[in-house]
Each structure stands twice: as structure tokens, then as C-alpha cells.
Amino acid sequence: MAKYGKENSRNIPLAIIIGVSLFLVIFASLFITPYFFLGLVFITCTLAVSEIYYCLILKNIKIGTTPIIIGSAGMFIVSFYYGAPGLSIVFFLTVAMLILYCSLDHIDYKIKIKQVSYSVLVCAWLPFLLSFMILLYCLPYGAYKVALSVVIISFIDMGGLVVGSKFGKNRLAPNLSPKKSWEGLVGGFLFGLIIIILGSALFEFFSVPFLLTSLYSIQGFFLRIVFVIVIGFFGLIGDLAESALKRFVGIKDMGAILPGHGGIMDRIDSCLIAAPALYLFFIFFG
Q: What phi and psi values does residue 13 have, to the nearest 5 degrees?
């Protein structure tokens, strides 16, 4: 794993190819069969949990990966069939199983408390938050909502990178993510706004509702601005949360499974915190 002090050059063409390929896989999973999507979410979660496990090992912190992965399968399945109430029950049971699992380990009680704390954190951060993508998928026209939301998050990240690299002077969070700037944040919002307008117009042309109100009304246009602000704000929190973990461990990327991107966590960090916010937004306005 790369340390923060070293410069890692990115293979931009390869990163673009990997990024497009990932989106095509996600797009296919959304519209071929729900079980494809559920499987993809589970595989993504399992790989991300593994990345965090190996990162925390660098700090001599061990988490209960087995209960987390078993619990994630349960959370995803009940989210699909029983919605948010089922998710809350399985999350509670998974946390209880994690506490029991860590308590049975023959380790010092101080280490045990740390193990339980980090295990519950990872359980809430990954399978619980990812379950909201499944809840979102289960809403009316949910596959379209997930697809456009993922595209918007990607373009917000892209806009932040492009604008920030060219015009970024005022650092947003220098202690966590030195390359992020306020100029990049504004650029990301503008990229996201362009995509939601184009995407909404395309959806309305094919009579697929993205939100309850039309793009061509004042209220509808305003709601789409709010949508981009919400997805950008909570996506930023997710990004900074992962940056804080990488700073804590002392690495640059969470993994190397995706050439040009890093690890799975490096790709889904923005989606994790944004997913519950998007679900609630569509519940009220979509």
C-alpha cells in the first residue's frame, strides 16, 4: 500500500477505461435482474470490508469480519424483501452478534473494547449504509434513480478533480485531504447540476419520472438544485471519512484492485453517506 509521503502517478486512460467498465457493470446489474444487483452490492461490500480489515491490521486492530459479512448478506436480503423495518432488525442482530463474537475472543479487555468499537463502526459504515442503495432501488423507477444518482456522484467527483486541479487555491480540509479545494467543490456542484438537468430532461422525454415535479417548473428546477447540493454535501462527508481512516492508518489508497482508482472503498466512499440522504430525498420528493 502506498504511503502518503510518496507520489503515486495515476494512469488516466486506464482509470477512464476502468471507470466506464464499472458503470456498465452497474448499469447492467440494475436492469437485467434484481438478483444481479444484490449480488454486486454484496461482492462490493465484502471486498470493501476486506480492505478495511487489512488497513486496520496495520494499527494492530482486528475486526470481526465473519459476522459483518454474514450480517451484510442478511441486511441486503431483508432490505430488498421487507424494506427499512427489516434492515433495522437485522442490523441490530448483527451488532449483537459482533459484540458476542468479540467477547468470546481471548484478548485483553482494553483490546476487546477497541475490537468491538471498530467492528460496529465498519458494520454501520458499510453494509448498513449500502443497504440504502437497495432500498432506493426498490422505490418506483428505482433502477433509474440509482443509475442517475451514481452518474451524478461520479461527475461531482470528476468536476471537483478537474476544477480543483486547475483553479484550486483554497484548501477545503488540508489535514484530511490536501488536494481538495473550495473551488473544486463548486466545480463539482456545477458538473452535477449539468448532469441532473440533462438526465432529467432525458427521463422526461421517455416518460420516466425522476422526481415528482417536472424539470420545466420552477419548483422542479429548484428541487434538482437541492438534490445536487444534498448528494454533493453528503458525498463529501463520505469522502472525508475515508480520508480520515487513510490518514489514521498512513496510506494513500485503500487498495489496488481497481487500476487508476485504488481500492473499492476509494470508489464507493461518496456513495456510502449519500445513500441514506438520497433515499430520504426520494421518499419525500420522488
A: -60, -40
Number of helices followed by number of strands (H, E) in the chain:
9, 2
Structural domain ending residue among the three candidates 107, 138, 169: 138
Is residue 82 domain-shared with residue 177, that is, in the same domain?
Answer: no
CB of 129 within 8 A of CB of 276? yes
> What total number of domains does the chain contain?
2
Q: Return the closest-CA partner of residue 80 out of 39, 46, 109, 118.
A: 39
Q: Which three cell numbers stand for residue 247?
A: 490518514
Residue corresponding to grid cell 446489474: 29
User: 269 and 145, same structural domain?
Assistant: yes
d(CA 113, CA 164): 41
Average pLDDT per 10 consecutive residues for the chain, totaling 286 residues: 42 67 83 92 95 91 93 97 96 94 75 88 96 96 92 87 82 80 90 93 90 90 94 92 88 75 84 94 88
Do residues 164 and 25 both lie within one domain?
yes
